[in-house]
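Morning, I've got a small favour to ask if you have a moment. The fold is given in discrete form, as structure tokens running alongside the sequence. I'd be grateful if you could look everything over and explain what you see. No rush at all, and the record is pasted right below.
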Amino acid sequence: MMRRFMDGADHIYLATGVTDFRKQIQGLSAIVSMQFRLDPFQGSAVFLFCNKKRDAIKVLRFDRNGFILATKKLMENMRFQWPRNTAEAKEVTMQQVEWLLQGLEIEQKKALREIRTGQRGSCY
């Protein structure tokens, strides 16, 4: 379901660290513009925030004439592996978001990386 909010997005940003979840659309869009120096009105960008307990995330996206704000709250004793470093906007891929939603870290050390090659680099 969360994937629907990110479909067609050119950029997905994680607000690393913790976010005060009392903030709603105005407060979160202020964080995006003032703290991260990004444009919250860019419809091709999605912004993800996590609370202090790491058991809920909020997704903020502008859609033509207004903002969409969605929240996902995990069940008891479940946590997101959210990056806890300083509060910055870290651009991630859809695959990394999928890992987060599955309870994994965004940096998978053993994940196979995509390799791009042409006929020149091939032995076939």
